[in-house]
């Protein structure tokens, strides 16, 4: 399937630079696949579409403040950028660096807090494997001295770091937020509890693969990066009970969809524990775990819009995007929301 079939034109002014004043005050486009009807609401109204006994599954991965800059020392200059990608063992980690010419093999750099890192490997992708010379935990360094890794299309720095975390985030490991969950607040969760909707968590640490653009002409030729995820026994049991009761499973975000669809067995149950996935869900895929899907509005020609198209149909999704543009919905990470039921 041609990649340009998932292209669309977005006015730059619709790229959200800051989040809504209140998380649940963002716009919500509701599309019902059975009736083929569309509604325009606000996110707090999503409660109206849940039924008692439904199960909402969210991704509770927490964003690491993954961007850090080198400081002056006898062996490095200030201002080179290190973007944490993945923790390895014994003080080693993968990182995206800029400028690359300053991160040749064996080169050392001083980070804030007097931590020294050394380039020990240059991967085919251009990523570097770095090690902390003193054996410090790299995540601890980034946690203390790093900055939130906002996407490049967000040029404003007006928002506070907590607005790029979900209110339920808990397990550190992502380098980008699972943004569909940014709309939920305590009031929405209280309303869900009142309606006797169950809520469960999975963890998928968002890596570079989620946002890597599709650069090939045919989407089938695109290679997804591997990402790790975790499903608890409690979540698997809730999923099983929901299915047995004939109720619906709601996935919040593309990361949750990929997690559930990657772990569901032939018997229709979720495999538990730490796992990994490099699955690329595209039109023609038969969904086995997800009935309803909460998502943001994504970049053109991205694996994310392809996944949404797999759930609701390519032409329909592009039509919904066109309608959202006409009604001036805000797009991307800090943008508005859509639910497909």
Task: Give the secondary structure arrangement, pairings included.
Blueprint: E1 27-32, E2 37-42, E3 55-59, E4 61-63, E5 67-69, E6 81-87, E7 92-98, E8 108-111, E9 115-122, E10 128-132, H1 138-145, E11 171-174, H2 186-194, E12 198-204, E13 227-231, H3 233-244, E14 249-252, H4 254-263, E15 273-277, E16 292-296, H5 303-312, H6 314-326, E17 337-340
Helix pairs in contact: 5-6
The CATH superfamily of the largest domain turns out to be QueA-like
Order of helices and strands: EEEEEEEEEEHEHEEHEHEEHHE
Determine Rg (CA atoms, Å): 21 Å
Strand composition percent: 25-35%
CATH topology of the largest domain: QueA-like
Largest sheet: 9 strands, mixed
Low-pLDDT stretches are: none
Structural class designation: alpha/beta
Q: Mean of residue pLDDT?
A: 95
The number of domains: 2
Q: Share of helix among residues?
A: 10-25%
Assign the CATH class of the largest domain. Alpha Beta
Note down, in words, how this protein is organized:
- This protein has 341 residues and is α/β, with parallel strands linked by helices.
- The longest helix is centred in the last third of the chain and has 13 residues, at 314-326.
- The protein is built from six helices and 17 strands.
- Strand 6 (81-87) and strand 7 form a beta hairpin.
- It starts with 26 loop residues before the first strand and ends with a strand.
């Amino acid at each position: 399937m041609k990649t340009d079939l998932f292209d669309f034109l977005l006015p730059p002014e619709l790229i959200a630079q800051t989040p809504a004043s209140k998380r649940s005050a963002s716009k919500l486009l509701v599309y019902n696949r059975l009736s083929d009807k569309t509604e325009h609401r606000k996110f707090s109204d999503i409660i109206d579409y849940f039924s008692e006994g439904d199960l909402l599954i969210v991704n509770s991965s927490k964003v690491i403040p993954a961007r850090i800059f080198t400081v002056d020392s006898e062996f490095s200059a200030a201002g080179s950028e290190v973007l944490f990608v993945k923790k390895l063992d014994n003080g080693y980690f993968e990182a995206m660096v800029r400028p690359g010419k300053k991160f040749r093999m064996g080169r050392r750099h001083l980070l804030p807090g007097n931590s020294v890192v050394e380039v020990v490997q240059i991967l085919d992708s251009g990523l570097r494997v770095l090690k902390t010379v003193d054996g410090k935990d790299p995540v601890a360094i980034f946690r203390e001295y790093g900055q939130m890794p906002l996407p490049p299309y967000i040029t404003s720095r007006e928002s506070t770091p907590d607005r790029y975390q979900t209110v339920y985030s808990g397990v550190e490991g992502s380098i980008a937020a699972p943004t569909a969950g940014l709309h939920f607040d305590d009031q929405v969760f209280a309303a869900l509890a009142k309606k006797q909707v169950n809520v469960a968590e999975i963890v998928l640490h968002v890596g570079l693969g989620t946002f890597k653009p599709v650069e090939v002409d045919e989407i089938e030729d695109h290679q997804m990066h591997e990402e790790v995820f975790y499903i608890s026994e409690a979540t698997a049991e809730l999923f099983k009970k929901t299915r047995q009761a004939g109720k619906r499973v709601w996935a919040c975000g593309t990361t949750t969809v990929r997690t559930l669809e990657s772990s569901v067995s032939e018997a229709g149950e979720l495999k538990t524990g730490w796992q990994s996935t490099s699955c690329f869900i595209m039109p023609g895929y038969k969904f086995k775990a997800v009935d309803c899907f909460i998502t943001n509005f994504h970049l053109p020609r991205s694996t994310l819009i392809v996944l949404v198209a797999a759930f609701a149909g390519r032409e329909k999704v592009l039509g919904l995007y066109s309608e959202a543009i006409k009604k001036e919905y805000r797009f991307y990470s800090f943008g508005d929301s859509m639910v497909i039921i």
